[in-house]
Design a protein that fits this description.
The protein is α/β, with parallel strands linked by helices. It contains 16 helices and 14 strands. An 8-stranded parallel β-sheet has the order 4-5-6-7-8-9-10-11. It has a 4-stranded antiparallel β-sheet with strand order 3-12-13-14, with no helix packed on it. A two-stranded antiparallel ribbon has the order 1-2. Helix 5 crosses helix 6 and helix 7 packs parallel to helix 8. The protein starts with a strand and ends with a strand. The structure holds N-(iminomethyl)-L-glutamic acid (NIG) and fe (iii) ion. The site of fe (iii) ion (FE) has 5 residues, from loops.
Length: 384
């Protein structure tokens, strides 16, 4: 084939193929950037993060290492509630600075599109604040952002004994106001027996869809609960986590366009042993994507290359499946498949120059950053 080339014009992919063929098809380029025989891949699409938060929770990390579980710590007032208390007491400027630093690190690791959830506010004001900060922080770093309203991440303390009243608040006030102000593209619900049950999840998802949001669900993470099947039935773009998905859940996803977004960094960071049954899903014909789930509680990993490594050794994805799961399938999980996630003609010219000449070295060298250059819309963002 000879050396390969990627032709870019006006921030979009024009074509790719052997150099000689591209010159014949597209003419002599105005600028040539030599990648030196290294791999060029689409920028990573990270379709599940909680990247706006205040303090980190290494205290809980240590408690888990000593034997407490995620749910025990949450029941004792830690977990999501602890990040909610922290976020409510912080200034916008402080939260923005923290988010910018974290998103900058993601960009340097090759992420060009990131989904960012709210969910540590749990009131209209604080959820709106998180979504505004997500947008401005991503923009200042140069990341393409998808904002997801996760007001249904937990029931806030002031509604502890009135859980259904909180579901009504989300449906009648928080979501309509967030949509009215154009602050979110999607909505998400933490569907678990101890958080929002199937009926509450369905109520909230239907309301969001009716308001024009796209939908996703935190599903079947801690118990097989039917969250994935519900996501498929309601037409959600993705069902995420799925550690405990059962055969009916897999069949439901296989029969729908809902993407399975797997988050193996969470299992790894929580020190658990059971990963989502990725092979069974792939064999059943489910589209599998990967994400970091970057958050202060269950997964402080911001690195998509490291997630690929964990996915390969712990869930037996092949390096090619991991690459597809972090690019084209992840774009589908966000409904952005016509824009990002592949280098097909017409897509945004969001791509990486890796420092390796074989993409299998990305998961192989677990723990290192294989990204040499990051380009977004045909402009180089890394190195600056
Ligand atoms: O995806 N499962 C719920 N949400 C996060 C954890 C958030 C937190 O602990 O702060 C997750 O794992
Ligand atoms: Fe999550």
């Amino acid at each position: 084939l000879g050396p390969a080339a990627l032709a870019v014009a006006d921030g979009r992919v024009l074509a790719y193929g052997p150099q000689a063929e591209l010159r014949a098809r597209c003419g002599e380029p105005r600028v040539v950037h030599d990648a030196g025989g290294r791999c060029v891949v689409p920028g990573w699409v990270d379709p599940h993060t909680h990247a706006v938060f205040g303090r980190t929770r290494q205290d809980e990390y240590e408690r888990r290492l000593r034997g407490e579980t995620y749910l025990q710590i949450a029941a004792a007032g830690g977990g999501i509630q602890s990040s909610v208390r922290d976020l409510r007491g912080r200034s916008d400027a402080d939260l923005r600075d923290l988010a910018v630093a974290r998103l900058r690190e993601m960009l340097e690791l090759g992420t060009t599109t990131v989904e960012i959830k709210s969910g540590y506010g749990l009131s209209y004001e604080d959820e709106a604040r998180m979504l505004r900060i997500a947008a401005t922080a991503a923009e200042s770093v140069g990341l393409r952002a998808v904002r997801t309203c996760l007001a249904a991440h937990e029931v806030p303390p002031e509604y502890r004994d009135r859980r259904d009243a909180y579901v009504r608040l989300v449906c009648d006030e928080i979501l309509p106001r967030i949509v009215g102000e154009g602050l979110a593209d999607r909505l998400d619900v933490f569907c678990e027996p101890s958080v929002f049950d199937l009926e509450q999840t369905a109520t909230i998802l239907r309301r969001g869809l009716e308001l024009g949001l796209r939908a996703t669900v935190h599903a079947d993470e801690l118990e097989p609960f039917g969250g994935a099947a519900l996501a498929a039935r309601l037409g959600a773009d993705s069902a995420d986590h799925l550690i405990r998905i059962d055969e009916a859940g897999i069949a439901a996803l296989a029969g729908a366009s809902t993407v399975a977004v797997l988050l193996p960094g969470t299992v790894f960071s929580l020190g658990l042993r059971t990963y989502a049954p990725a092979r069974a899903m792939i064999e059943a014909g489910v589209a599998v994507a990967l994400a970091t789930d970057f958050n202060p509680g269950s997964c402080p990993i911001a690195s998509v290359p490291l997630i690929q490594a964990i996915a390969c050794t712990q869930m037996r994805l092949t390096p090619a499946e991991a690459l597809a799961a972090c690019t084209v399938n992840a774009a589908w999980a966000l409904g952005l498949q016509d824009e990002v996630g592949s280098l097909a003609p017409g897509r945004a010219a969001d791509f990486l120059v890796l420092d390796v000449d074989d993409y299998r070295l990305v998961p192989y060298h677990a723990g290192r950053n294989p990204v040499r250059e990051v380009w977004r819309d045909g402009r180089r963002l890394v190195p600056r």
